[in-house]
Amino acid sequence: MNIILFGAPGAGKGTQSALLVGRKGYHQVSTGDLFRAAIQNQTELGLKAKSFVDRGSLVPDELVVGMVEEELQSLGGKPFILDGFPRNIPQAEALESALRRTGIKVDKVFSLEVPFEILKERLVGRRVCSNCGQVYHVLSSPPKKEGVCDRCGGKVIQRKDDQEDVIENRLTTYMNSTSPLKAYYKAKGRLVEIDGNRDAEKVLHELEKGMV
Ligand code: AMP
User: Fold this and answer.
1) Topology given in CATH for the domain delimited by 3-115+166-210
2) Which of 5, 58, 72, 159 to mutate to test the pocket of ligand 1 (most atoms within 8 A of CB)?
3) Which residue ranges make up each domain of the chain?
4) Residue nearest to atom 10 of ligand 1 (CA)
5) Is 105 a catalytic residue?
6) For residue 9, which atom of ligand 1 is closest to its CA?
7) What pLDDT does 176 receive?
8) Burial of 20 (0-12, 13-18, 19+ CB in 10 A)
């Protein structure tokens, strides 16, 4: 089964994708991770995307869609989770036509529902390992040793776009451009709403129930 994990920034898409990858052999396609890697490696795509990512705005559709198409083609039929894509209606339509062309199906769209105030708390306190991507929170789940990843010993940092002024823009962008996708996928009968304001393990359990 191929799925889309949908939700606002901080809703837990990355955390749940990592859990599903670990347990079910899914391949995660995270457009945010792909952009961060491209920026770090200073590729042509990274240089074009950087200013949008830094200020929490959407990277132009033509850059995103091509990147996702390439990624899906490279999977050779392995089941995947789309995390952070699509982010607006034109991207969803581009995905539909790419899927039609390639004969790949997206079976379900899981929307992780988290109240806005909680999203802000999560994002302001979020820290990530710059090496393996493991997610921490300064209050609820700090690394054992400050600044050092429990899993790989990498450096734990705050994402530039997790700073308060950028968070506001990301949440507004979500409200204006991304949230209309819920109605879009509901109309197609593919939307499954999940309470994301719970322990990660409980959310995972709900997801797994919906994936049978
Ligand atoms: P994320 O890690 O999913 O929160 O994404 C981080 C940033 O990458 C976003 O704030 C956007 O600047 C960019 N980005 C990620 N996915 C997309 C997308 N599907 N369309 C446009 N921009 C994206």
Assistant:
1) Rossmann fold (3.40.50)
2) 58
3) 3-115+166-210
4) 56
5) no
6) 4
7) 98
8) buried
Of 17, 53, 160, which is best to mutate to test ligand 1, by the most ligand atoms within 8 angstroms of its C-beta? 53
Which residue numbers in the chain have pLDDT < 70? none
CB-based contacts of 178, cutoff 8 Å, min separation 6: 8, 87, 88
Q: HSE of 127 in the Cβ direction (CA atoms, 13 Å)?
A: 20
Would strands 135-137 and 108-113 be described as parallel, antiparallel, or unpaired? unpaired
11 vs 6, 98, 103, 121, 161, CA distance in Å?
Answer: 9, 27, 30, 11, 15
* Amino acid in the structure at residue 181: L
Q: Is 59 in the pocket of ligand 1 (CB under 6 A)?
A: yes
In order, the DSSP letters of 88-141 are SHHHHHHHHHHHHHHT----EEEEEE--HHHHHHHHHHEEEETTT--EEETTTB
Report CA(53)–ligand 1 centroid distance (Å).
7
Is residue 126 annotated as a catalytic residue, yes or no? yes
> For the segment 139-189, what is each residue's pLDDT rounded down to a tens digit?
999 999 999 999 999 999 999 999 999 999 999 999 999 999 999 999 999
